[in-house]
Amino acid sequence: MANNLVKTSYSKDDVVILLKDIGGEIKEIDTADREKLIQQGVHYSEMLPVEHKPSDEYMQIYYKALHDMSDRVALNIAVLSERLISKHRGEFVIISLARAGIPVGILVKRYVKMVYGLDLPHYGISIIRGKGFDENALKYIHDKHGGLIGAEHFQFLDGWTGKGAITKQLNEAVENMKHKYTQFDCLSSDLAVLADPANICNICGTHEDYLVPNACLNGTVSGLISRTVLRDDLINVAAGDFHGAVYFEQLENVDKSIEFIDTITEHIKHKISNKSRAELNYAIEESKKIVGETGIEVVTRLANEYGINDINLIKPGVGETTRVLLRRMPWKVLVDTSHSNGEISEDIEHIIRLCNEKGVPIDEHKLGNYQVCGIIKNVSADA
Q: How far apart are CA 98 and CA 226, in angstroms?
């Protein structure tokens, strides 16, 4: 392999991450400056945000979510895994989208091995909104497995859906791949996710909008790797380079990547040992039901109502809103309490607390499947 792969805190038994190591070649940019550059037209994949040691605020939210949601995540992983086994009827290649997809992919891999005795190949690759996925990484995977398994059994996986931008990007990238390379004629763009509140994925663990614990943290729950980078001076695609990333060695002492995976794995083992098949079967059937608006329909409606020209400033869902409050510059947060009989649900208590602490206004609003939606401040309007 020509690429010098980025280091990660994950075991190669769990995942092989196909990202080029660009450590020392790119500077991190603080949140305010990065926000301005993005809204001025610089692509987000051409720079990296500063990743600090998680604050006590971050960690309180993470540990509460891990305590409250681990059993729910374990059930959704079981649902997702069973539906993927049913789809592929045997072995398949897990291709997780970095970063949020990788922990989900590891958990699916572990579930399938525990329940079915299959040791599935698992890779992490980059996909970038507006640019597509890493074609070199996909060609590498095909060279390794295409002859035995076939591209029709390459399964893309992610953590959750926001408004569906990555799903749309994946569809376009797969169609482009099919036109360029005959070996990918049977490649499917079907994206499987743990949680699909956007109502756009054929296979998911649930359509419910809730806080998946790893949404609270960045690299420290993602194998200590950065967001992925695609910039011409760093990545030579024509020469076979994979998309790039940085390893956060300075955060090794606060890494929670393996702790998260192992915690959910223990909950999965408990579910398997209890043989709660009735609960699992019910959850599988519920995951197949799609009711209400899609994510893009909700976002388009909100953009029209609030006069927002750039829908990328609108981030629906508990996970995405949490990230807006912790990473970005929030303008306001919309809450839909119809999901919890007019009360603030436990799923979004941390969001209300963060809004109060940061002085972010909260509006009550109908949000379809979503409990909450974060809107990023338009900093270019202030310039």
A: 9
* Cβ proximity of 333 and 356 under 8 Å: no
Nearest to 189 by CA among 162, 214, 164, 225: 164
Domain ranges of the chain: 16-268, 295-382
For residue 146, give both structure tokens: 């295409």
Q: Which residue has the tokens 């992925």?
A: 228
Query: E strands within the chain?
Result: 16-17, 20-21, 28-29, 48-49, 93-97, 122-125, 127-128, 132-133, 154-160, 191-195, 203-206, 244-245, 314-316, 330-335, 362-364, 372-376
Cβ neighbors of 285 (< 8 A, separation 6 or more) are none
- Span 358-375, average pLDDT: 95
φ, ψ for residue 260, nearest 5 deg: -60, -50
CB-CB contact of 76 with 244 (8 Å): no
What's the token pair of residue 143? 């060279």
Q: What is the DSSP string of 304-332?
A: HHHT-S-GGGEEESHHHHHHHHHHS-EEE
For residue 33, give both structure tokens. 């400056």
- Least trusted range by pLDDT, from 31-45, 269-283, 302-316: 269-283
Q: What's the rounded mean pLDDT across residues 38-46?
A: 88
- Non-local (6+) Cβ contacts of 346 within 8 A are 68
Domain with residues 295-382, CATH architecture: 2-Layer Sandwich (3.30)
Place of tokens 């990328």: 312
Nearest to 246 by CA among 85, 57, 7: 7
Cα–Cα distance list, 310 to 38, 304, 314, 343, 375 (Å): 11, 10, 8, 31, 11
The tokens 């974060």 sit on which residue?
374
Q: pLDDT band for position 202 (50/70/90)? A: very high
Distance between CA atoms of 293 and 285, rounded to whole angstroms? Answer: 19
Query: CA-to-CA distance for 279 and 122, rounded, in angstroms?
Result: 28
Query: Max alpha carbon distance in the chain (Å)?
Result: 59
Q: How far apart are CA 108 and CA 104, in angstroms?
A: 6
Q: What average pLDDT is seen over the chain?
A: 92
CA distances to 79, 205, 285 from 288, in Å? 10, 9, 5
